[in-house]
Amino acid sequence: MKYSVNSVWENKEDYDIAVVGAGHAGCEAALAAARMGFRTILFTVSIDGIALMPCNPNIGGSSKGHLVRELDALGGEMGKVIDRTFIQSKMLNQSKGPAVHSLRAQADKSNYSKVMRQVLQNQERLDIKQMEVTDILTEEGLTSGVRKVVGVRTYSGASYRCKAVILCTGTYLRARCIYGEVSMQTGPNGLQPANYLTDSLKSLGIKMYRFKTGTPARIDKNSIDFSKMEEQKGDERVVPFSFTTNPDDVQIEQVSCWLTYTNETTHDIIRNNLNRSPLFSGMIEGTGPRYCPSIEDKVVKFSDKNRHQVFIEPEGSETTEMYVGGMSSSLPEDVQYAMYRSVRGLEHAKIVRNAYAIEYDCIDARQLKSTLEFKTVEGLFSGGQFNGSSGYEEAAAQGLVAGINAARKLQGKEGLVINRSQGYIGVLIDDLVTKENHEPYRMMTSRAEYRLLLRQDNADLRLTKIGYEVGLIDEERYQKLLKKEQMISDEIERVNETNIGTSNEVQELLKMHNSTPLISGIKLAELVRRPELSYECLKPIDKERPELPIDVMEQVNINIKYEGYIKRQQRQVEQFKKLEDKKIPEDLDYEKIKSLRIEAKQKLTAMRPMSIGQASRISGVSPADISVLLVYLGGAR
């Protein structure tokens, strides 16, 4: 659809910020913008699709739990809503070090959506409109070659003036759902796709990709034999996602998940029907996520494996639908029945919703600044799966940052950029805007260089001050953070100065924990550092210990036990910051730097990195190129 920017503005109300899409990214973006004082309108193709979970029924998981914790520390909403709507919760990787501990909660999907919708509808300065946005309206900007957002146009023909637009279209742009020979022009869960916005974006010179994701079947609980499966229970003591949630309020009776496995019969069924899989027949054009493959992909790529894990997870407390985790597929319906029923416990399974793959349009995120604003369209921001990422948590984190930065742009302030040493959110966004991604990007702990510092347990200590500075954290919460910091600091100092003697009580406690007896007195901190001991278990011999909250004790234990490793990583961060602090002028002409290789000139000109640090992470830019750049900028040492 083509409209002139000079056409009559039909609606009577103007807005500061328009958010397109009400998935997890759009919800966080709209809430952030409104809470920072700007009149915001949130467009969605269906109000029933607000905060929809079209795939897995959970929030968090390995590394993703870190993102939710960080989002909450900055003032986001996802952590609060999952705390109100979860039906099972587990802290993953507890047998490993604290750097990889990650929260994961099974959600009541319909209740999660309902609660988030209530939050949005009760937010001041935020309006919700069920309508498809078809055009981004722009005018010539002050900078040559840069357009400036002035509004949006909807399918109904109505235009809305605004000063900034945030695109959070998820998997809806020209969406197509596929299984077997069935291909439907539809968004996730049968919702209508958004078919027109892509053309508007292309007319603005925005480069688009075609990506794919998928989801497994949903099976009727009453048709499953759980006696043949392994029960997976939640934690005895639940840890909430939000730092504002009272831990006592989330100690609920939890539902169970179940574990079973595929087998050789399952794999034979799949192999014998690969010719009917749109994934292998060429019917699917988009690129799928490498780290969340379909069951067809697993069987082909891991042919040496005789079984794969299958998690049976409830979709909610008021439904009998069960999610078949680990078996997403785009095979025909009859093959789906055969392969699911070959799995132990699913012999009589009844499919409620078929598995399917979904294709959709998204962007090359290297067209974005680190603030998530497009480089060539002033006032146009982008967040979520539209940026080429995957997952609810990655989407929500980007949405929050895009919402904050759209608001800060209207405030005339510098954009917020969380760097790689500050949070997983920084790693996520930096990877998206600097690296070429030919598949949906998924966050993993291995992507974070400083993961010992970026733990999920200290997200509030790292980021809440930033949330306070941008205006999303209130004074009361900020003061609580300062008090917590002081308690941690005081207790670490006390433990480092406290002497422990060789009394019988001390020796008995050490013996009980299989720890070497003491020959002479020792500092309490030295005992905490022993692998078999902890700050908590030493309480009986620590007579001067004050009463402290659980989260404070946790920080004391980790900071003392891993002090050497933490200090080493802090030194690495200092080196990292030196390169990040070396800013590169936006208008630098790389063609004038004669010693730069041609490829480096092309990549740097296209990417326009903000700093030497960011330039060093661009594919095709070598360490030698960085040295040349430093010399040219007068930064060589």
Task: Explain what this protein looks like in three dimensions.
The structure is a single chain. By secondary structure, the protein is of the alpha+beta class. It folds into 4 domains: 17-214 and 360-470, FAD/NAD(P)-binding domain (3-Layer(bba) Sandwich), CATH 3.50.50; 218-357, Elongation Factor Tu (Ef-tu), domain 3; 494-564, Orthogonal Bundle (Arc Repressor Mutant, subunit A), CATH 1.10.10.1800; 582-632, GidA associated domain, C-terminal subdomain (DNA polymerase, domain 1, Orthogonal Bundle). It is 34% helix and 17% strand. The strands form 6 sheets. It has a 6-stranded antiparallel β-sheet with strand order 15-16-17-18-14-19, with no helix packed on it. Strands 6-2-1-10-22 form a 5-stranded parallel β-sheet, with helices on one face. Helix 3 packs across helix 4. The longest helix is centred in the C-terminal third of the chain and has 23 residues, at 475-497. It is globular, with a radius of gyration of 26 Å.
Please summarize what this structure is.
This protein is α+β, with helices and mostly antiparallel strands and about 625 residues long.
Give the helices and strands, then pairings.
Blueprint: E1 17-20, H1 24-35, E2 40-44, E3 58-60, H2 64-74, H3 78-85, E4 86-92, E5 102-107, H4 109-121, E6 126-130, E7 133-140, E8 147-154, E9 159-161, E10 164-167, E11 176-179, E12 182-184, H5 197-203, E13 208-215, E14 218-220, E15 230-232, E16 257-261, H6 264-271, H7 278-281, H8 295-301, E17 309-314, E18 321-325, H9 333-341, E19 351-353, E20 356-363, E21 377-378, E22 380-382, H10 392-411, H11 424-434, H12 459-470, H13 475-497, E23 499-500, H14 504-512, E24 522-523, H15 524-528, H16 550-561, H17 563-580, H18 598-607, H19 612-616, H20 623-632
Parallel strand pairs: 1-2, 1-10, 2-6, 8-21, 10-22
Antiparallel strand pairs: 3-5, 4-5, 7-8, 8-9, 11-12, 11-20, 13-20, 14-18, 14-19, 15-16, 16-17, 17-18, 23-24
